[in-house]
Amino acid sequence: MDSLIGRIRTELLASADEKTKQIFQRFFKETVTYYGVKTPLVGKIAKKYWREVKCLSKPEIFGLCEELYSSGFTEEAFVAAFWLPNLVEQLEPKDLATFKRWIECYIDNWAKCDGFCNHTIGDFIEKYPEILPEVKSWAKSDCRWLKRAAAVSLIVPAKKGEFLEDAFEISDMLLTDPDDLVQKGYGWLLKEESRKHQKAVFDYVARNRSIMPRTALRYAIELMPKELKTVAMKKN
Fold first, then answer.
1. How much is the average pLDDT of 97-106?
2. What per-residue confidence (pLDDT) applies to 1?
């Protein structure tokens, strides 16, 4: 397995380009570690090596993913995030403890957080809704990435209109959080819920607009018609 990780790292290093290296950091406020490889190309590399990885046991795949996450390189985290959704049928509720630990220990920027949570944990919740109370509890954490994860883990189900009340509960817990990346996370969740539940989301925003940070509010109403946006943005 060490040689497989080594081959992935060699290929990522060889795939880096100067332009991507120059602009990569611009997307983040915090300092990030990266090779400078375009995301679609990272996806191709991940898909290529998945042909070998998929034959391994779940513990072995988890071990590889943890090694990739622990390196600190954003593209290596993306490789793990491309692999993990393929394991959803093998996941068990107890695996959530591993995922929480990875977020606490290895997630250090919004791209790693969203890449991991949107599909892996989102699909996991759809398979095992009983894990949702634990995911919601992350919104009370002191860890900014667990708080963002509580919201963005529901993004994919929210696009289908699922878990609306849970989305509101998460938003309630994060409503006045001062961290803009947390605000963007729950604002994004509300935006996706608005695809199927526009009135409910609008009513939620209207009720809370006096205390809801403008960053979160703007995200939440992004898909709404202009007239509703105008009302929502009015200051009390």
1. 98
2. 57
SS3 annotation, the chain: CHHHHHHHHHHHHHHCCHHHHHHHHHHCCCCCECCCCCHHHHHHHHHHHHHHHCCCCHHHHHHHHHHHHHCCEHHHHHHHHHHHHHHHHHCCCCHHHHHHHHHHHHCCCHHHHHHHHHHHHHHHHHHCHHHHHHHHHHHHCCCHHHHHHHHHCCHHHHHCCCCHHHHHHHHHHHCCCCCHHHHHHHHHHHHHHCCCCHHHHHHHHHHHCCCCCHHHHHHHCCCCCHHHHHHHHCCC
pLDDT tens by residue, 134-158: 999 999 999 999 999 999 999 999 9
Exposure string for 82-95, b = 16+ CB within 10 A, e = fewer: bbbbebbeebeeeb
Residue owning tokens 């609306």: 164
Q: Provide the residue ranges of all domains of the chain, joining segments of one domain with +.
A: 1-90, 107-236
**How big is the CA angle at 231 (ends 229 and 233), to the nearest 5 degrees?**
65
- Mean pLDDT across the chain: 96
Q: Report the interhelical angle of 164-174 vs 180-193 (nearest 10°).
A: 160
Candidates 1.25.10.90, 1.20.140.10, 3.30.420.40, 3.40.50.300; correct CATH number of 107-236? 1.25.10.90
Angstrom distance (rounded) from CA 58 to CA 173:
34
Q: How many CB atoms lie within 10 A of CB 29?
A: 10
